[in-house]
Amino acid sequence: MKNKSVIYINYSPYENSGKILDYLLENFDKVFLLALGFHDLKKKTRLNQLLIYSKKKQIKSYSLFRFPSTKHLLFFLLPLTSLINLIQIIFYLYLLKNQYGKIEIYFTVNGFTAWIGNIAKRLHLVDKTVFWVWDYYPPVHESLVIMLMRYIYLFFDRVSLRSDKVVFINNKILNLRRVSGILSEGKHFPVVPIGTDSFADVSSRGKKNLTLGFIGVIKKSQGLSEVFDSGKYIIKKFPDAKFEIIGSGPEDEYFKSVAVNGPLPTTFHGYLEGESFNTVLKKCTIGIATYLPDSSNVSHFGDPGKVKRYLSLGLPVIITDIFEFSQEIKKNKAGVIIKSGNPKELTKAIETIMSDYKNYQANALNLAKKYYYKKIYPEMFDFSQKTNCP
In what order do the strands lie in the sheet with 286-289? Predict the structure, then answer.
């Protein structure tokens, strides 16, 4: 792939989840990254942008138009913003083709943008399309607007399975499509999870004072309340315990008020980029991934990128049993599974890990090595077998 080009489309700030952007830069001569804004996860608005890389170096950038919206109007305006994105993607593909020639691979993780990729192929703007299926959106939701949007998305998701290469992020979302009849039972599709980073040196990081770490979107479904509800029990067992939170989101202020009134000393670092969040997490002892068990929560069906980050840094994980990957954590003794809604259970999980910290830490790193991104990503761009839905 060294002499080939790829356009990669994803939503901010997930462009480099599991080091996928790094992998593309390492393996393609030219990389065109089109990052689309959805939720504002930073204090300043993150514009839609097209970044052009040649031999790993950024050589150009374009700011794309983004229709202004508020959190409350986001889903109402989704058809309009999607139409704008469609027009911009096709326009910039024409621009890129005129400047750099036809692009070999169109790569994305979203059903709607994958559908655009198949249009681009029919327009001879790209040679091959790759759809790495990250999500499943259960159509049933308490909000009729969100329910309608999810049914529309399922249409795009289904037709996008005709991409030249279709890869699923886990077996759970692959099997959901088999059960629904979208995919035939006998057809093989590769499963490539989110990868882990290069591995931290933890030789000097033994058992120490308890510091819990969290990275992600600040909203209730992420399970931050599990930690705050356990605060008094955690402090009783570990008087010097702290909680470090990296990220921002729609419920920042709510959780900041909860933290101020709680017994667990908590630092909110906001949205961090680059190595800044690693710097904070390296000071932590345990990674938190206590997602809430809500049947309409899309997190149930994905692959927890934050957990791969924790493992890469040698952080044992406390996780709820809503992911397929949760069982990998348990089987490899790289952390502890808990049920949500029981504050004492989270404290007990912390005690379990801290009582055998060196082993849990070593197991976390060993599990990270199994999913190293340079080892697992090549399969996504192997076209020797046809893996699409006829």
Answer: 266-270, 242-246, 211-215, 286-289, 317-320, 335-338
* Inter-residue contact 337 to 304 (CB < 8 Å): no
Domains of the chain, CATH where assigned: 5-195+373-381 (3.40.50.2000), 211-370 (3.40.50.2000)
3-state SS assignment for residue 308: helix
- Distance (Å, whole) CA 327 – CA 237: 27
Q: Distance between CA 299 and CA 340 in Å, rounded?
A: 15
Q: What does pTM read for this prediction?
A: 0.87
Backbone angles phi, psi at 336, to 5 degrees: -135, 135
CA angle 81, 132, 31 (to 5 degrees): 75
Rounded CA separation 226/228 (Å): 6
Measured CA to CA, the distance from residue 305 to residue 373 in angstroms comes to: 12
64-84 pLDDT, tens digit each: 877 665 666 666 677 788 888
